[in-house]
Specification:
- This protein is globular.
- The chain has eight helices and eight strands.
- The protein has about 240 residues and is α/β, with parallel strands linked by helices.
- The strands form two sheets. It has a four-stranded parallel beta sheet with strand order 2-1-3-4, sandwiched between helices.
Length: about 240
């Protein structure tokens, strides 16, 4: 199968690491290709950023379908553009936030998300409500590190571990989700550190969850329901190309 991973941002900072990560997540027979946007925000840290990324993201999804890809991942924890894209293509489109929350809800009764900034807390909370797992959400915590600075791994891992311990001790979290797809390559180490401290609980990487959910969806030969995600009505739509 062929999967296109689209970073819904104009920054190419994460491209090489994304390719390596998603190739490692997928089955050997799965082909992974990554791309980013031609126009939109440098990172997504607000509803405004998300709105700006959606038009070009949808065009990239449509191109992926035309190029023969079997499915698409919107590689941002806000799942930008996923629902409108599902309306316009006939291949499955998966968001890491939705995927990781669904996975984690099978592993624990209560989970916490540890994300980047306070700006995105309400966005993540809203996704949990739409996904139907809000009652499982113990808390949303943040490390106060902007998306474009998460490459400082030592600082990131220390901040994540601190917030994860607070989520367990103060919020009664029984599982944890990394709340940014830029938090690459840290899930296993953080899970090990928690185990060493006496907390044998899962730490779910959202990119990994999205990859496995998409591979399963493609293997099953299913896609989004046309009752839930109806094709948009035919009408004139003018796009600003300036």
């Amino acid at each position: 199968m062929k999967i296109k991973v689209i970073a819904p941002i104009i920054s190419d900072t994460f491209m090489d690491e994304m390719k390596k990560e998603f190739t490692g997540f997928s089955y050997p027979q799965t082909t992974i290709d990554v791309t980013n946007l031609d126009y939109g925000p440098a990172s997504i840290e607000s509803e405004y950023d998300e709105a700006l990324c959606v038009p070009d993201f949808i065009e990239k999804v449509k191109q992926a379908e035309a190029d023969g890809y079997d499915g698409v991942i919107s590689n941002c924890f806000g799942d930008p553009g996923v629902k409108p894209a599902r309306e316009v293509v006939d291949i499955p489109v998966i968001g890491p936030c939705e995927a990781s929350m669904l996975f984690t809800s099978t592993l624990a009764k209560r989970f916490s998300v540890v994300t980047v900034l306070p700006n995105v807390v309400s966005m993540i909370s809203n996704i949990s409500k739409v996904t139907g797992v809000y009652h499982n959400l113990a808390s949303i915590r943040y490390v106060n590190i902007p998306v474009l600075e998460v490459h400082e791994k030592a600082k990131l891992k220390s901040a994540l571990l601190d917030e994860m311990l607070k989520a367990i001790k103060e919020d009664q979290a029984e599982a944890l989700i990394l709340g940014c797809t830029g938090f690459m390559g840290v899930a296993s180490e953080l899970q090990m550190k928690l185990t060493e401290k006496g907390y044998d609980i899962p730490v779910v990487d959202p990119g990994f969850a999205a990859t496995k959910l998409l591979e399963a969806t493609i293997s099953m030969g299913v896609k989004q329901s046309r009752i839930t995600y109806m094709k948009p009505p035919s009408k004139q739509r003018v796009m600003n190309t300036n």
